[in-house]
Structures are given as C-alpha cells and as structure tokens.
Amino acid sequence: MNLLKSQSFQRGSPLIVVLLLAAFLRFSYPGVNSFASDEARVSLMALDTVHGVQFATYGIPSSAGARNLPASIYAFVPPFMVSSDPLVATYFVGLLNIAAIAIVYIFASRLWGIPVAAAAALYLAIAPFNVFFSRNIWTQDLLLTLSSLWLISAYLAVQSPSTRTRRLSLLALTVITGVGFQIHFAAISLIFAWVYMVLRYKWWKNWLALGGGIALSFVLLLPFLYTAACCAPELISEYVSGAGDAAVDGYRSPLLLTLRLATNHYWDYLAAGDLVQGTAITQTTIVSVVLMTILLLVGAISFVISWRRNMTRDQRIASEILLVLLIMPILAFTLLPFTARLHYFLTTLPVIALIVAMPFFAFRNYLLRWGMVLLLAATCGLWFIQIEHNLSTINGRTAPMGMGTTLQSVQDAASQLPADVPIVMHTQSTDTYTRGEPATWRVMFYERDMRLVNGWTNAILPSGPALFVTDADGMPAFEEVNAYLDDAQDYQPIEGAPPVYAGTINFDAFDELYNWLDEPVAFSSGLTLLGWRARTISQRFRVSTVYRIDALPSDTQIRQFTHLRTPDALDPTTPPSLVADIPFTPQNWRVGDILIGIADFMALDQIPETVTLDLGHYRVDTGTRFPRIDGSGDSVRISDVPRN
After folding, report:
1. Long-range CB pairs of 301-308, under 8 A, 24+ apart, other chains included
2. What does the pLDDT read at residue 248?
C-alpha cells in the first residue's frame, strides 16, 4: 500500500478544512506566544549559530538538569536563517505541527478511511494542549512532528511492498529516533519503541540501513562529543548526576499524565491562567474534559473490538505500532530515574487522536456514528471557544500566572525605542546563556548596535549618540543616572509587561553630581578613575566610581575591589572593615565611554559617619591586581568619605 500517492479531492477536502482550522489557532494573535527565558536563550543560540558568532555545541539546561544536546538549537536554525524575528520561528513551529496533523490524516485515511482520519486530525487541530504546544520556541513543540514521522516510517519499514522503500524507511526511522532524542530528551521513548521494533521484526538483518541511520544520527552529536572530550567533561557528568531526580507522587505518574494530556485537563496554565479563572467560558472546561473522557473510553473499546473482529493485516500492523508509541513513553518514564512532566508524553498524541477516532471505523450503526459526531463536535466546539477566549484575553497584555511574558509584549516595547541610535541596555546580567532577560534583549535588537550591561553593578555612559536603557526602575544603574537622564520615557505598551526606561545622558548635569579627582588615576586595566560619590540609598551605602575607558584589556573578567575602612582599620596591610567587589565586563566597553562602578554595602549599622575607601581592580582568574600607570601601587585611597 503506497501511502504517498496523490489524494483525490474527496479524500483531501476534509484535510484542507481541518488544516485551515489548525492554522487559525496556531497563527492567530501573532506575538501571543510565550517568550521567557528558555525561548530567548534558544533563539539567541540559534541566531548566533546562523550568523557565525558562536556555533552551538550544546543547548540550554533541560528540565532534567543536564544541558540539552545541540540538535535542540539546530532545529530552530532554519527559521532564523530566514529572519532574526522570533515570530517567524513561532510560525515555523506551527507549520511543523500542522504538517504532523496532515501526516496522521494521510496515514489514517489509507488504513481506516476518511471519517477516522478526519476525526483524528480534528482532535489534533483543536486539542488545547496541542495548540499551545505548537505556538512557542520550545523543543517539546516538535515532539508531535517527530512521533508522526516515526509512525509513518515504522509502518513503511514493515509493510511497504518495495524492498527499497522498506530499507529507506528503516534508515529514516533510525535517524528520526536518534535525532529526536537529541532535540528533546522526552523522545527517549522513541528509542524504546525503536528497540522493540528492531527485535520484533528482526531488523538487525538489514544492518546497512540500520547502521547508516545510526551513523547519520550521530553527525549532529559530534560537536557535543568533541566539546565534552576537549574542553568540558562536565557535559557528560551532568547526564549522570541528573539521574535520580524522580518524583513519585501520583501527580507525576506517567499514566495519569498521559490521561491528563489526552483529556486536556487543566491546560490553561499554558495560556491566560488566572486571568480567566471564574469566567463562564472557563467553567465549561470541566464539561469538555467529561466529554473527551467519554470519547476516549468509547474509542478504546472500539479499538479492542476492531482488533478482535475486523482488522486487516495492514491495520493490525499499524495498530501494533500505535500501541508501541502509546506504551513506551509510559514505560520509559516509569523505569527511568527522572521526574515525569506532562510534555514528555506529547509523542503519544497521534495515538490518542486515532483512539478517539476509532469508533468511526468500528461502528456501522448510523445512529451511533452520528452520536459520536455530535460528541466530538461539541467537545471541539467548546475547546475552540475556550482557546479563543484565552488568546483574546492575553492579547495586549501578559499572563503572569499563565503564559507569562509574551513575545508581543517584548517586541512592542522594543519597537517603541528610536531606531536610528545605538542602545546601551542595562539589565539583570550580561550572561545570555543562563539568564533570560539579557538573552531577550539581545534577540530583540540582534540586528542593531546594542550593548548589554549588568545594571546591578555597572552603568555605561556612551561617548557618542546612544540611548541609555534599563528594564527595571529599581535597578542601581537607573537610580544612578536618573538625575541626569534627558527625555526619559517609560515604554510599557503592553499591560503587565516589564517596563523599559530610556533616555539620553545630560553630561552637564552629570558633572555636577560627582566629586572629581584633582589628578585622574590610570590603571593598566584600561580604566582611568575620574571621580566618585557616596550616599545612602534604599537602605544601602552606595559608592559610585567614575572611570573613563582609555583602552580595552585582553582580560574578559575584571573586578573592582571596594574596601571600606573605618578609622580603626586604616592600615592597608590589615583586612578592611567591609568589602564590596563588583564585576566589570570589558567585552561591552568602547574607548571614550564613561563607566560607573556601583558598589553597595548593606550593613549600614557597621558604617560610621566618615569612612575611607581603597579602590582598584584585579583579574578574576588569577586574583592579581592591575597596577597604576604612574607606578604608585595598585589602588587609590579616598579619605573622609561621608556616609550621607
């Protein structure tokens, strides 16, 4: 049976209708897509891979603890080759999900007929979990596509009349299995299923296709293995140490999670969350869960009846593969020492959809069929209304206890900033690998001249035209420059989105706020100390040091030591009373800029009215200090510094 031959209009028209419906639910409300830490970091690593900035040799940390394999980044390279806009990547994910629906439809229509295919495709098109797991830049959103490809490849590898097709299908199946696990850890269940099929159908005899598939699937793993061998052995140990993090409560039961996924119980945490709690439409979710439970029970009974009575050999083989796809994730995450999570079972969705649709094959009675049509139509109608309600509620705002920060909210804030000047963005950190905020802004301004600054300890005042930007009004960098920030505006076009403050530096007002040294002090770190100020702010004693950047050092990690000395501890050979070391990031420096170091001392009760400060810089890796250019040691002492 050739599953790939062209479809007639009669066979294809239900598919077109379902795919249009699926496309509406995945592409409507553009930007109402989750865009928090994971999405931003994956996007940035894919962009850097595309543009040759840094080729990804591993992915972001997974929910299991270990870092994901690099295929989790490579999977998103295609959309970012087209555009740096993350919205394009969300459309890419949606298209792959829609393609999976088409694959399931084609597979089912050839084996069980159009009614079964249409019902299964309709379930996949509207089931809320599948809708919301197809709108984001998450690797788990690719699991349905992987399992659908796995399903049709496994069937062709067993049942195709052509030897060549069987071999190519086995090759494809093996590659999908190997690459799938590299894209998302949950696809390890496909490895379990693959092993079963190899043993069941003696595929080891076809060693060329099997070995070729294994070899090809290892190609994407080579950068990870090379990095682990040469530079980062902890990559391997993370996978070993990650084992054992297993929850045993019933809520994490693989079987119950699969049932929850199938019935779409409590899915609004992916959407509007608390924003829609208590509304009339939300209260209908229990009705849709009950209706879907009935459909699943009837479908399971129909599946068993059909298996025992009237399935052909082709249908039995296909049904066996479906059962393998359903059972293996439950078995795998019962046996493996990892905490099960709901999205680990997205590979079962094609099976669940076909179980729901099976009554349209098993039942010949006209009334029974129409009863199932009405049940399915009512369930899908409720789901459509609920999904539309959630999406429209989030549109134009964020959902803190649901989807969270949306791509729309971040893009709208970024689009408000003037487009013709460079940006100096002061945010939570400069670490775009582990922190979502800097990764988000790097992605938003990927094609613009934008520098990231750790706004908790630094402020950079650019020497040329540029926007000074922060993403929190309580950030020390904003507190530092607020008094001399001209044209300061709060860009918060989306309700609930993090605020973005931007303006330009008024250097005349800047000059009036600091105590300037009679003779600036230059360090071999490339910084020249020009002045300082000290004050009590927000229950902290803050010391701000003003530097001019005169050169760019080769060291990538530098810290300023800020030693506070009380009158009884002025001897430089004795330990200081209090210490506040702050990091500098030379990668973000430009010659001529002003750098302000911001050191906060929290123990106000230990600080007298007047203190002495010793300031300098040191290398993080060796701890060695940078000497002064004038040869007068490696620090600057500032005396008689008032606390207020």
Report:
1. 302/358, 302/359, 302/361, 302/362, 302/363, 303/355, 303/358, 303/362, 305/362, 306/358, 306/361, 306/362
2. 40
Q: Which two tokens stand for residue 571?
A: 């001897």
Residue 317 to residues 116, 181, 200, 537, Cα–Cα distance (Å): 17, 24, 11, 72
pLDDT tens digits, one per residue of 39-56: 999 999 999 999 999 999
Q: How confident is the model at residue 247 (pLDDT cuts 50, 70, 90)?
A: very low
Residue 313 pLDDT > 50: yes
Q: Which residues make Cβ contacts (< 8 Å) with residue 7, sequence separation at least 6?
A: 15, 106, 109
Domain ranges of the chain: 17-234+249-394, 407-510, 515-642
- How does the average pLDDT of the chain come out, rounded? 91
> What is the model's pLDDT at position 249?
41
Residues 6+ apart with CB under 8 A from 240: none
Do residues 62 and 341 touch, judged by C-beta distance below 8 A?
no
B/e letters for 145-156, b = 16+ CB within 10 Å, e = fewer, are: bbbbbbbbbbbb
Question: How much is the pLDDT for 614?
Answer: 96
Please compute the mean of the pLDDT values over residues 49-70 and round it to a whole number.
Answer: 89
Length of the chain: 644
User: What is the CB neighbour count within 10 angstroms for residue 14?
Assistant: 18
Q: Which of 129, 36, 136 is nearest to 87 (CA)?
A: 136
The kind and range of the H/E element at 500 are strand 500-505
Listed residue (148, 125, 225, 156) closest to 5, CA to CA: 156
pLDDT computed for residue 64 by the predictor? 67
The structure tokens listed for 328 are: 């293996």
CB atoms within 10 A of CB 277: 12
Spatial separation of the C-alpha atoms in residues 332 and 344, rounded to whole Å? 10
Q: Which tokens in the block code for residue 470?
A: 């922060």
Identify the pLDDT of residue 102.
97
What is the gyration radius of the CA atoms in the chain, in angstroms?
30
CA dihedral 154, 155, 156, 161 (to 10 degrees): 140
Task: Report which of 247, 277, 288, 248 is spatially closest to residue 399, judged by C-alpha positions.
Answer: 277
> In the CATH hierarchy, which fold is given to the domain comprising 515-642?
Immunoglobulin-like (2.60.40)
pTM of the model: 0.91
pLDDT at 336: 87
Q: Which helix (H) or strand (E) holds 298?
A: helix 285-309
